[in-house]
């Protein structure tokens, strides 16, 4: 089997199952292989129930001899099989639903291991749907790390595991595109070996080596893609003329608040770039709440003042609509008669036609939208500036798409990810960088606290008090729904729990990445209007809307997240005049987790937190939920894997210095990889 084979060619995958896999963006054998585990699970040591000092809830393995015959009965049109093991007070009821064959498969007097989740029901210890193992087979599994995958309805962890094993056993070996000398130089294991070990590691050391190899490949491919394109073309000449006047300064003077020095410096950088002989390629790095939006507006307004169009592409429709309303208000406040145009995918056909007409007929329009801005029907008459709101949602090739719609425009990228400068230079090597590292004086610092699970009732009371004062709250969970072998709060069940716990006048909403875009927009807009007071969400709110009324950010299982991601989540609050709070629930007993979270507790400076995150990460810290939020690589993490990022950057530079066009025979596989990388970028743009 070739790695590019459609998933239907894999044994056991029919059309119906393939359609379900598509929900996970899995279409080919390669897609399955690159659906990396989100965590690893080690089976607990199986113990006899009488040996357990304190019985606790959670995933447990119980070793027991069958001393009673299982009871099978029908209840509410459903077969239920039960078996009781142990003696009071350490007695456990095993329950299987719709599995009548269990009764005959368990032999009286024989010892088995029962693995499942222990819970208390009606003051009784219960394990529902436990898996049954022969003792020897279970003991052999205790030493292995088991992969845990991101799932969707209809796809089980077992199905993905089985599918990947089938692919690995039948697949032709994948050719490694990184030249041998660099694999030796950086001590990288063999690529096919890495693919096997990342899914089914023989030992923790092998897993670390495999992950390091795949991280290096991912960074290398990304950086090579950027630099290879850069090396192939010269800087584009600036085809736009801007008058040297005081327009921007006059606008700043009309603001009800002063700009920070960092904002002024960023604006000056933009002004200088727009007047230079070449088009701008600039990254504005600004911490959460640093005021990047007003900088974007003033840059776009300057374009309109000079008779040019500008466009800002937001990552979500909700944020695009919010920018649209904000920019309309700013134009009114400044007395500017500039057309402001909104273009999103969900707009009705008539609304889109009107927007397209404005793009063609309004030469100085400020255009706000989503990926709809680069669709074929969007034809610009005079586009001079493109601003993207989050780099990771903006493919490398998209700049060229805008260029094809007229002259090559100036490009400004806004990033809220607080990346240490050394890493930013690597990741954005084809761009100049400005940093907005000051927060407007009117904003109150967020008050933080790190607490254990015993604090939850007080946290709920605090949220109720804040809502009663007219404010709102976010509650973040690491999981969308209950997942096999994954510990941590899930948003779906937590939203139901909170709806029962909190008073009736408090509306609880649910938001997660598996929702359709229309539904996500509906929920976020309802939260923005205060129709929802408490929003239970996954990290999808990292790139959300500005809700100044939200004053509480409560993060469950905070120890599961990277510090940079926690800081960005915290940045969803503290956007209004009221005091805001961040409550981080630490469910880990380790000193390392406490130390990491204390960094957030003591500082609101994203750049300091990012640098501390680099220091506190170790090679075994990659277990758990994705660590960094914005620059979402499939497996790499720019903080944890900073060393590999720097090494990949060195390798890319050396190769392109020696062979800019990748014409050498030893670079043939690499050149094919670059074509594939660019094709993938174009594909992402069309999604």
Structure description:
The chain is an alpha/beta fold and 687 residues long. The chain contains 23 helices and 22 strands. Strands 2, 3, 4, 5, 6, 7 and 8 form a 7-stranded mixed beta sheet that branches. A 7-stranded parallel beta sheet has the order 12-13-11-14-15-10-16, with helices on both faces. It has a 6-stranded parallel beta sheet with strand order 17-22-21-18-20-19, with helices on both faces. Helix 14 links the parallel strand 14 (383-388) and strand 15. Helix 7 (191-199) crosses helix 8 and helix 9 (247-253) packs across helix 11. It is globular. Mean pLDDT is 87; it is low at 622-630.
Summarize the structure.
The protein has 687 residues and is an alpha/beta fold.
Q: Work out the radius of gyration.
A: 28 Å
Largest sheet geometry: 7 strands, mixed
The number of helices is 23
Shape: globular
Q: Helical content, roughly?
A: 25-40%
Mean pLDDT: 87
How far the N terminus sits from the C terminus, by CA atoms, comes to 27 Å
Please identify the structural class as seen in this structure: alpha/beta
Q: What is the number of beta strands?
A: 22
Q: What percentage of the residues does DSSP assign to strands (E)?
A: 15-25%
> Which residues form runs of ≥5 with pLDDT under 50?
622-630
